[in-house]
């Protein structure tokens, strides 16, 4: 399933290349520059050069530390000292908790009941206050926002925040240095902070690069909203890609407009395709990836995506926070298929 995005270039961007460059300097020491690994298996299979950007190498196992670090370090010291609050599907909460611990400020992470136990435990072990507050992200977000107001703490959105977008955009600067010939990027899309940051970074420097987005089929908020031309509510359904779940609040300021301007094409993967991608990553790349983390690689496994790929493709491996037992079951189930 595909939808054509908007025009290729954008005139006014809420986040600039300069802000992404500043973010890169600011987050050094908290976030890593991650490896770009050639995938010999996928290169062979697809007859073009394929690279994987390993955000799994971050200290929290996902790229979200880039945005969280930039957001916290951008706050004026008096404000920062009061602490931060967020709502998260898991990885952003873990990243914010990690950064807060490193800089010595309190963090409150509000989660929905759908966040997998591995993620909840990882956040708790970083010393953050963890509140499981409600059946879905909408409820958890409302709670987090009211808590932030009540306590006078800063709410750090997982995606709709300029410093978060700039932080995620630092991935683009690294990719363009590591592989200047890149002509196609495959990027996971949930709230769209990752795609917005990468898109602004890449298009500012190499406007011709194609941006392919991918979401899970069940409850793809950005995809549905792009198709409708306005932000629509989606039902939050369980998925292997738990990191990609969740709606886009209707007061979205940046990521919806950025995504519909930047993205050339969106792909949706069903649960079998996500499972196959995770198994494929494990067996052929020797990579542990969570469902959301494997989605970009999953696009490359779909025969119908090949005609949209250029000669030098980079797929982002966004995260590895998966229950090992669950992963091994999926490898067992899908290993022979992908
Ligand atoms: C958050 C997340 C995404 C999606 O990022 P958005 O900025 O919300 O679009 C993709 N993969 C993983 C592993 C994530 O944690």
Note down, in words, how this protein is organized.
The chain has 338 residues and is of the alpha/beta class. It is 45% helix and 15% strand. It contains 14 helices and eleven strands. The protein has helices at 17-27, 40-46, 65-74, 77-82, 91-103, 117-124, 137-151, 162-178, 193-205, 221-228, 255-262, 271-284, 291-300, 324-334; strands at 2-4, 36-38, 49-54, 84-88, 107-111, 129-132, 154-155, 184-188, 210-216, 265-269, 312-317. The strands form two sheets. It has a seven-stranded mixed beta sheet, sandwiched between helices. A four-stranded parallel beta sheet has the order 6-5-4-7, sandwiched between helices. β8 (184-188), α9 and β9 (210-216) form a beta-alpha-beta unit. It starts with a strand and ends with a helix. The structure holds pyridoxal-5'-phosphate. Pyridoxal-5'-phosphate (PLP) binds next to α5, α9 and α13.
Residue share in β-strands: 15-25%
Side-by-side strand order of the widest sheet? 1-10-9-8-11-3-2
How much helix is in the residues? 40-55%
Q: Rg, please?
A: 18 Å
Mean pLDDT: 95
Largest sheet: 7 strands, mixed
Poorly predicted regions are none
Count of DSSP H/I helices: 14
Let me know the number of strands: 11
Measured distance between first and last alpha carbons: 19 Å
Task: Give the overall form.
Answer: globular
Order of helices and strands: EHEHEHHEHEHEHEHEHEHHEHHEH
Structural class: alpha/beta
Any ligands, ions or cofactors bound here, and which?
A: pyridoxal-5'-phosphate
